[in-house]
UniProtKB/TrEMBL annotation:
Protein name in the entry: Uncharacterized protein
Keywords assigned by UniProt, alphabetized: Membrane, Transmembrane, Transmembrane helix
Bilayer-crossing regions: 7-26, 32-53, 65-87
Organism of this sequence: Flavobacterium terrae
Domain of life: Bacteria
Length: 94
């Protein structure tokens, strides 16, 4: 069963994914496929659930903040790689 914070993570993810969905209705510059929504939803949910798990399990504030910062940095690096390809991987974006 999901707790209250996990439901907030799911709700926030859905709200964040509404931004490009609504933007696609007004401009042709935003062109996400269903795969883009699935990948970004997975990334956001992973970050949210990892943050929620760390918040529950780690009591030391310094370690908690450090772990969350590491997860945010990894999230941003993956997002940037998928968007523009800073590392020239096979998954690089346009």
């Amino acid at each position: 069963m999901l707790n209250k914070n996990q439901l907030y993570v799911i709700g926030a993810t859905l709200l964040l994914l509404l931004i490009p969905l609504i933007g696609m209705q007004f401009t042709s510059e935003i062109n996400w496929s269903i795969g883009d929504f699935i990948i970004m939803g997975t990334l956001i949910l992973s970050l949210g659930f990892a943050t929620e798990f760390i918040s529950r399990k780690i009591s030391n504030k310094t370690y908690k903040l450090a772990m969350i910062a590491i997860f945010v940095i990894v999230f941003l690096l993956i997002w940037i790689e998928l968007a523009v390809g800073i590392f020239n991987s096979p998954f690089a974006g346009s």
